[in-house]
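Each lists sequence, tokenised fold; shown next:
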Amino acid sequence: MLQVKNINVSYGLAKVLWDVSFGVREKEIVAIVGSNGAGKSTTLKALSGLIRLTSGSVEFQGERLDQIPGYQVVEKQVSLIPEGRRLFPFSSVLANLELGAYTKRARQNSQSSLGNVFELFPVLKERQGQLAGTLSGGEQQMLAIGRGLMSMPKLIMLDEPSLGLAPIVVLKVLDVLQKLNERGLTILLVEQNVQSALNLGHRGYVLENGRVVLEGAGKELQENPHVKEAYLGIA
């Protein structure tokens, strides 16, 4: 479904990604894990059209994404849930959700999508008139995911969805991602919480210093000696 081939990305003279390649199959959860500064967020920004590639290519369902602007990437039914949630804090929950349905296809189906989001996150229905900035961290993450779902994506990409959340809330968010995947949604997950991400992911890639150094099934990577020592604290 998604094919990333030898992408390179630089910020000015500083090269951040080095020949990164990976793939995501339809209805699969793929995790990209690694430490801070490994290039995980840069990878998602490159796939979303927020930053340009120096070289390489990104294809989604056979169409190039790296040659079009970010808003057209969303029209191809690829949605990014960014790190830090990036909500509009002084707008209501409902307004934030409605802003997610700005493409023509999404606008035509916005009421149906809204119903699906409220079914998935009942707390958002209860608080739809509340300002987004007054929600708890977990509720804001739910809202960010809900806003992404309003665009009717076939693939959602999540950047550090567990960041700053209490462990019990993290479990709730991961459970929602599992449910979405069971309903047929393809998921690309970037996470510092390596164990949780590899538990959830069908497959995973380990990114270090802008390079893919390991790949494999989620369970296999958890048993990899390097992953156990470097990320799971198991010698």
Remarks:
- The chain has a mean pLDDT of 94.
- DSSP finds eleven helices and ten strands in the chain.
